[in-house]
Amino acid sequence: MKILKKSQERTEEDRRELSRLVQDIIDNVRANKDEALKEYGRKFDACEREQIRVSKDEIEEAYAQLSEEEIADLKAAASNIRAFAKAQRETVKPLENFSPMPGIFLGHRIIPVNSCCCYVPGGNYPLYSTALMLIIPAKVAGVKRVAACSPVMKGKGKINPKTLVAMDIAGVDEIYAVGGAQAIAAFSYGTEEIAPVDMIVGPGNRFVTEAKRQCYGQVGIDFVAGPSEVLVIADGSGTPAVVAADLLAQSEHDVNAKGMLVTTDETFGKAVIEAVEAELQVLETAEIARKSWKTYGEVVVVDDIQEAVDLVNDYAPEHLELNLKNPEEVIEGFVNYGSMFIGENTAEVFGDYASGTNHTLPTLKAARYTGGVWVGTFLKTCTQQSMTAEASKKLAPLVSRLADGEGLMGHKAAADIRK
């Protein structure tokens, strides 16, 4: 393996101060509820609004600020996301009357969580696409109460109008103008205006991420997400400028994002580096993208595709692009990734917005143990069983012996009474 461009190593951030700050915010929200939320709104966003919940009038006002094309684009993207979520939902089925032995009947039900909050970041950009990616699968899953929240535009006291329209098109039930760690605390523990939920999903900054970590248990979460990542595998058969564009598409997210190329062709790797530098000369978001690429961008040359596969499975990237002539030959070898994009025609940004798969994905090696947000994120598989009197009597001695072996005599007695 040869490294053409090395990235800076991510160091374990000293989380002690961050943890303390977030704990203080959570404690304040728990104690002072809506007043704490309004205090943070004034402090961080110059927001003076009194009502945290977004009204129907605000939503209608947001629609009036968008063009017909913008609204149509959001609806088209939503249609693809909804169609795929519905197809996924059909694969998750109940199980009835499985019998491991005569007279015992086992099964499971698929039950949606009762309520959730979809956190839509504001940050550097209004990520209205995330509203579609979170709310739509929750609604398709059958969640009865789907709330959403997002930070307001600084000094304006309102959520970005395109984000509001996206939330409405997605089918949200409630919208709240609040963000940050304080929003996570509010939906975890409740305030006067905000009833607590069973689950919180969605990405956010390090304060949001830490708040999700601290509130987990009180509320369910999707996962703890970090900076965005893309890893491209290329054999040199593709176009350097295309790969460069995909790397920078991730790099522009923020200065901590990571774009990585793994290639079997050193000449191609060098050409991609040149193409990245060329695009940075004209890219409007070059200030962020350049810092990200300089710090965390990486280009690695490997001896063969199998070495590339092994590297990917160890790294477990959020987005995996296969810029290969014959990608079908190696697809089955990849087991650790958030979402895969096969062939040069399949841009990762298509998945970010409109092709239909979800863009809320695991980062920082979390793909080793979880996939991204999908309709199943909002579903519980709950088991059940029943048995005949004959089966109960037949099973009781086995359970009695097992309970006796563990020293749990109450368990043994509950089995023995059914002999």
UniProtKB/TrEMBL annotation:
Binds 1 zinc ion per subunit. The active site is at 318 (proton acceptor), 319 (proton acceptor). The keyword Oxidoreductase applies. NAD(+) binds at residues 119, 182, 205. Transmembrane segments: none annotated. One of its GO terms (molecular function) is histidinol dehydrogenase activity. It is an enzyme of class 1 (oxidoreductase). NCBIfam families: hisD. Belongs to the histidinol dehydrogenase family. This is Histidinol dehydrogenase. The gene is hisD.
